[in-house]
Amino acid sequence: MDSGIFPPVVLARFEQVTLPSENSLWLLYAAIVFLYSLFSFILSYHWRTYAFDKEKIQLIMRLYFSVSLILLGGMAVFLFAYQP
Amino acid sequence: MIALHNDEKILGEMRRHWIVLAGHLVPFLVVIFVPVALWFGLAFLDPGEARGSLEALFGFVVLAWLLTAWIAVFVVWTNYFLDVLIITDHRLVDIEQHSFFSRNVSECFVDKIEDVTVDVHGLLPTFFDFGDIHIQTAGESPRFVLRHMPRPHETKDLIIRARQGLHQKRELHD
């Protein structure tokens, strides 16, 4: 086996590691989505309530939600591909 | 939001200098690049049949990491963006957003202003033209301190002009 940059000791250690189950990762994903929703609610509440420049805030909200939804979607795709 | 009085006009809306925000955001850039470097490290690993699963797991962790950094960047930006000084022709409103659910709004009427001092101190403030503005007001209220304001001399002139304008308006009215 080509060990690449990792010494054989590290690779041997890696072989002993048990990968987490799919269900536990979906549970972790649900926890992340919950925390994300909580923070997004707090952020958007502050933006809508206190910001003066409403147009700028609309742009910022669009950027924030589109990138974070792409990241959350990507995480779900990786979970579907995950077969331990 | 602040409610403007009748015939009150906003002369300027200012935030701390962008370099203050940049200083807070630099650690997040480092945080963002750590998993990218690790991803390249994974290319040297040969886990055999588990490679697909390991890559998927690693991708999941990296995206979770990036999402956390992304939210943290917006938390920092929100604290910066909502920290604002509003100069009207009647008063100064200094809104300090310390963190979520911690906000301090101070007002100072321009006719109460006695003295405005600009303090530009150090290499970066001199090159990037930012500094502190100290406003001494009449009465019991303490000194009003506006920290890391961009173009502090122009801001000081704006405050002085607002005070003069209000005095002239009152003299004409009387």
How would you characterize this protein structure?
The complex is a heterodimer of chains A (84) and B (174). Chain A has helices spanning 8-16, 22-50, 54-81. With 84 residues, chain A is mainly alpha-helical. The radius of gyration of chain A is 20 Å and the shape is elongated. By secondary structure, chain B is α+β, with helices and mostly antiparallel strands. Chain B has 4 helices and 7 strands; from the N terminus they run βααββββαββα. Chain B has helices at residues 18-42, 51-81, 123-128, 152-173, and strands spanning 10-15, 84-88, 91-99, 102-109, 113-119, 130-137, 144-150. In chain B, strands 1-2-3-4 form a 4-stranded antiparallel beta sheet. Chain B has a 3-stranded antiparallel beta sheet with strand order 5-6-7. Chain B is elongated. The model of chain B has no long low-confidence stretch (mean pLDDT 85). Chain A binds chain B through residues 1-6, 11, 14-15, 19-20, 25, 29, 32, 36, 39-40, 42-43, 46-47, 49-52, 60, 64, 67-68, 71-72, 74-75, 78-79, 81-84, and chain B through 1, 13, 41, 43-48, 50, 52-54, 56-57, 59-60, 63-64, 66-67, 70-71, 74-75, 77-78, 81-82, 84, 86, 95, 97, 100, 103.
Strand order of the largest sheet of chain B: 1-2-3-4
Tell me what portion of residues of chain B adopts beta-strand conformation.
Answer: 25-35%
Strand content of chain A: under 5%
User: What is the helical fraction of chain A, as a range of percent?
Assistant: over 70%
- The mean pLDDT of chain A is 86
Assembly status: heterodimer
Helical segment count of chain B: 4
What is the radius of gyration of chain B? 24 Å
Helix coverage percent of chain B: 40-55%
Could you tell me the radius of gyration of chain A in angstroms?
A: 20 Å
Q: Tell me the overall shape of chain B.
A: elongated
The count of β-strands of chain B is 7
Helix and strand string of chain B, N-terminal first?
A: EHHEEEEHEEH
